[in-house]
Amino acid sequence: MATKSTSRQSPRFRCAECGWTTAKWVGRCGECQAWGTVAETAGGTAPRTVPAQVLRPATPIAEVDLTSAAARPTGVAEFDRVLGGGLVPGAVVLVAGEPGIGKSTLLLDVAARAARQGAQTLYVSGEESAAQVRARADRIDALADRLYLAAETDLATVLGHVEASSPQLLVVDSVQTIASADVEGQAGNVSQVREVAASLIRMAKDRGMSVLLVGHVTKDGSIAGPRVLEHLVDVVVQFEGDRHSRLRLVRAVKNRYGPTDEVGCFDLSETGIIGLPDPSGLFLSHRLTAVAGTCVTVTLEGRRPLVTEVQALVAPSTLPSPRRTSSGLDASRLAMVIAVLDKRAGAPVGAQDIFAATVGGVRVTEPAADLALVCALASSVLDRPLPVDAIAIGEVGLAGEVRRATGIGRRLTEAARLGFRHAVVPRGSRDDSPMPDGINVIEVSNVAEAIETMRRLAVAQPTPALARDTA
């Protein structure tokens, strides 16, 4: 008797991030280790896609019109610097940052300026009521006739507002608060964020409408939601800054229309957020006399040089394990610099409490600030002030050598513009770029030579009147 065989296709589960498949559901992808991205897919062979009729034939690349991709300034010069000149029609920009750092304030200001320039603008708030947004607009003077406001959390309703008002600029605050009724799960999960972003991007491309999306970040600072969100959008902008400081830095992590090495500086106050075209003065302390334990360096934020002051305090420790505290500086680089100073320069800092910080709330992470930290520590140990018109630039190695820094010409030009007259730099820096006029460039090979150079400059400098009176 012949038996009839039946084939049963078991369901398969696929990761939405990397495409990894498995026979049973798991909460975490076994390939990319992402959580909540594995979903069931239909079994069997996928239908083949047949060719469709071409409505718009391919165009020779030399005949493509460039006017549609021309950037339009937003009216906020520092934001335009980061974007590469402004907003491109059809571009989708994701603005991410920690809560309360100023994302909504900046984008509300951008929306109002665009509306005053004649662009139909729609601001969709999913986190605050319309009255709360109106109160913020009154405070920062962001009222405009062509700026429309809607407080919605449903994706279909948001798309309906876009259809009704036909805006040239759409601001959605935030993408994690909008949800689609056609997708399971609550707002903010992986599937919802992917669907909301894809729908808004599709409408932006079809209408030539610029879109600004506010994105949340996780505890480690990464953008919340699926990684594909960053791949779908055209520009990813990161907001940075200390909650206790008014300074805010905006940098482009991804930009299809411009460079990713530009940084915008803003001052966040009660009356709004204001661009700072020349922020170097914010990172210097204004004193009438020189103080031991301070040294000035020039950091590069993108392509922008910023003159920054590094402060250090070395004090006798009463604890079995001396304290090492840093603010605005990388703690691991501070520990390395302390070890190099103790071993290579013979400075007695190993058993002392050491505190190091930057001025103005700026965060310095590049290695070119190592030499300034070395000089500040040595100045505090010796209790001898360094020259107020001298800067130090260079990376310090474990052997005590001072290595070259990139963009030395731009750094020294900015220092000379602000009135600094002496610069201690790594040996060979003159070979990298021409040195600016008006500043005495001194090349050093190691930390001991750098400290001795700073000591000679301090001896040659006239003693301030207040220091003579208290001596």
UniProtKB/TrEMBL annotation:
<feature type="domain" description="RecA family profile 1">
    <location>
        <begin position="68"/>
        <end position="217"/>
    </location>
</feature>
<comment type="function">
    <text>Plays a role in repairing double-strand DNA breaks, probably involving stabilizing or processing branched DNA or blocked replication forks.</text>
</comment>
<dbReference type="InterPro" id="IPR008269">
    <property type="entry name" value="Lon_proteolytic"/>
</dbReference>
<dbReference type="Pfam" id="PF05362">
    <property type="entry name" value="Lon_C"/>
</dbReference>
<keyword id="KW-0863">Zinc-finger</keyword>
<dbReference type="InterPro" id="IPR027417">
    <property type="entry name" value="P-loop_NTPase"/>
</dbReference>
<dbReference type="GO" id="GO:0006508">
    <property type="term" value="P:proteolysis"/>
</dbReference>
<dbReference type="GO" id="GO:0004252">
    <property type="term" value="F:serine-type endopeptidase activity"/>
</dbReference>
<keyword id="KW-0238">DNA-binding</keyword>
<dbReference type="GO" id="GO:0140664">
    <property type="term" value="F:ATP-dependent DNA damage sensor activity"/>
</dbReference>
<dbReference type="Pfam" id="PF13481">
    <property type="entry name" value="AAA_25"/>
</dbReference>
<keyword id="KW-0862">Zinc</keyword>
<dbReference type="InterPro" id="IPR041166">
    <property type="entry name" value="Rubredoxin_2"/>
</dbReference>
<keyword id="KW-0547">Nucleotide-binding</keyword>
<keyword id="KW-0227">DNA damage</keyword>
<dbReference type="GO" id="GO:0003684">
    <property type="term" value="F:damaged DNA binding"/>
</dbReference>
<protein>
    <recommendedName>
        <fullName>DNA repair protein RadA</fullName>
    </recommendedName>
</protein>
<dbReference type="InterPro" id="IPR004504">
    <property type="entry name" value="DNA_repair_RadA"/>
</dbReference>
<dbReference type="GO" id="GO:0005829">
    <property type="term" value="C:cytosol"/>
</dbReference>
<dbReference type="InterPro" id="IPR020588">
    <property type="entry name" value="RecA_ATP-bd"/>
</dbReference>
<keyword id="KW-0378">Hydrolase</keyword>
<feature type="short sequence motif" description="RadA KNRFG motif">
    <location>
        <begin position="254"/>
        <end position="258"/>
    </location>
</feature>
<keyword id="KW-0234">DNA repair</keyword>
<dbReference type="InterPro" id="IPR014721">
    <property type="entry name" value="Ribsml_uS5_D2-typ_fold_subgr"/>
</dbReference>
<dbReference type="GO" id="GO:0004176">
    <property type="term" value="F:ATP-dependent peptidase activity"/>
</dbReference>
<comment type="similarity">
    <text>Belongs to the RecA family. RadA subfamily.</text>
</comment>
<dbReference type="GO" id="GO:0005524">
    <property type="term" value="F:ATP binding"/>
</dbReference>
<dbReference type="Pfam" id="PF18073">
    <property type="entry name" value="Zn_ribbon_LapB"/>
</dbReference>
<dbReference type="InterPro" id="IPR003593">
    <property type="entry name" value="AAA+_ATPase"/>
</dbReference>
<feature type="binding site">
    <location>
        <begin position="97"/>
        <end position="104"/>
    </location>
    <ligand>
        <name>ATP</name>
    </ligand>
</feature>
<keyword id="KW-0067">ATP-binding</keyword>
<dbReference type="InterPro" id="IPR020568">
    <property type="entry name" value="Ribosomal_Su5_D2-typ_SF"/>
</dbReference>
<dbReference type="GO" id="GO:0000725">
    <property type="term" value="P:recombinational repair"/>
</dbReference>
<dbReference type="GO" id="GO:0008270">
    <property type="term" value="F:zinc ion binding"/>
</dbReference>
<keyword id="KW-0346">Stress response</keyword>
<feature type="region of interest" description="Lon-protease-like">
    <location>
        <begin position="353"/>
        <end position="471"/>
    </location>
</feature>
<keyword id="KW-0479">Metal-binding</keyword>
<comment type="function">
    <text>DNA-dependent ATPase involved in processing of recombination intermediates, plays a role in repairing DNA breaks. Stimulates the branch migration of RecA-mediated strand transfer reactions, allowing the 3' invading strand to extend heteroduplex DNA faster. Binds ssDNA in the presence of ADP but not other nucleotides, has ATPase activity that is stimulated by ssDNA and various branched DNA structures, but inhibited by SSB. Does not have RecA's homology-searching function.</text>
</comment>
